[in-house]
Structure formats: C-alpha cells, structure tokens
Amino acid sequence: MKPTLLILAAGMASRYGSMKQVDGFGPNGETIIDYSIYDAINAGFGKISFIIREEFLDSFKAIFEPKLAGKVETDYVFQNYDLTQFGIDYEVERAKPWGTAHAVLAARNQVNEPFCVINADDFYGFDAFKKMADFLTSEVADDTYSIIGYQVDRTLSDHGSVSRGVCQVEDGKMVAINERLKVYFKDDGSVAYEEDDKEYPLDPNTRVSMNFWGFTPAVFKQSEPMFKAFVEANKTNPKAEFFIPLVADGLIKSGEASFKVIPTDAKWFGVTYKEDKPIVQKSISDLVENGTYPANLWA
Length: 299
Description:
alpha/beta; Nucleotide-diphossugar_trans; globular; Spore Coat Polysaccharide Biosynthesis Protein SpsA, Chain A
C-alpha cells in the first residue's frame, strides 16, 4: 500500500481563497507546494491529502485537480472548530483552529494507510520524500514513527532569527524536542540560539524538525485523548495551539511510540522574511538548471 502525503494547508486558505496567484517561485509560477507534490509522487506516495478550511474546497480543486489528474489520487480534509466530534460538549471562541496536531486529527476518518505530514509552504527536497516513503513502506509501525531531521545550518535565514524544534537524538531516536525561538547565524558563520537574553552555541550538524513526520493511523487514537486534555487545560487561552511536537513528546514520555530521526543533508527553503523570496527563487532556478526539476513542472 502506497503511503499518503498529508499537507497542512489550512493556513494558506486565505491566500488561495482570494484566488490571487499564490507566490510563484518556479519558472512558470510554480508554488513551493507544487515541488513537494512533484517530489512525493516521484518518491512513491500514492495519495495527496490537503488539510484545508472547507470554504476553500472549490478554490483548491480548481488549482490542483487540473495539474494532478491522472498522476496521483487527491483528497481534501477539513479542519474546523467543532469540538463535539471529539466528545467535548462546550464551545471555545477562537480566531483560528487548534494547531498542527489538531489538523492531523481532522484526517482520522479519511487516512487508513501510513502517512507523512508536511507544511504547505516549506521546500523540503526530494531526498526527504524518498527517505520518508521508504520508511513508511518498510519500517513504520504503530509504536515506531519518524521525523526527518534537517541540519540546523541548512535551515536558517540570512535575514534574521528563526524558531526551530531542536531534536535531542540518542541511538538514532528522538528523546526530546525543544523549541528554540531565536536561532541564527553569527557573524563568523557559526550557529547560536538565544534564550533569556543569553546566547548559546549550537552545533551546525544538530538535527531540527521542519515539521516532516511519519505515522500510521494509530496516531489518531493515541493523540485524541491528548487533544481533549489540551482543550480542557486551554479553554480560556484562545491562542494556545496543539502542535505535533506536543504529541511526539507525549508518546515518547509514555513509551507508546518512539521516533526514528531520519537524517537528510537536503537544504530546506522557506520564506520567513520577505527578503528570503528571491533566495528561494534562485535556489529553485539552480535546481531547474542542474536538471533536478523540469522547467515546466506539470507539462
């Protein structure tokens, strides 16, 4: 059974929904999401599942169905505010849904095979998709999940600090993940992070999470009680978000599942600052020139 790619795209909906051209990075206006899907298909994924807000279904279909028809199966998962589906009998007023692990839970009735989760607007590189597809077809189990570990120095911006989930790895497994809110290059090219106004060095080979996770559908039942407890604890905190690292941390601590850290040397691209956009365009242009991608992705 081929694995499924679950794309966290509910946050992109407003950009797609206005039907303005989402930021194009490729030579023919290809978005970052296009490159992820292209890599996933070539790596052996059998289905692309978009997690979106329901009101943007028609917009998404109009953009993606013509490109992907005949190439891969597509599906759409809706993330919403309805807590009754989780047996919670009260409402919580919020400006946005409950975060990435809540988005994954939204897929619990539609995804029945091993799957991976990625962000819609991050460029991950083919190596990561291939390694994850191999893991999901040969190694994954209900108590053995994975995360793609990027080298921290291959994920930073030259234009300011970024937040990164820093993985603590022992014997190839993640034993903890710590969110560092300010990680950056120093003037001498070394990497550091700041916490409580103090600067700490960070080995450039340190593995960080770019939200690229591998699971079986067992994670839905494992994480649902955590979500209910999270809602109860945060019903008066409208900005609290139930993130995937919280689930991973809970599963590691309880011994329910371990997380293999799959290393990649791929360079991650993302647009944290507006100054990053030309750099991403140039990086993709170089990959087209060296033959990694065709000039016209879906031609």
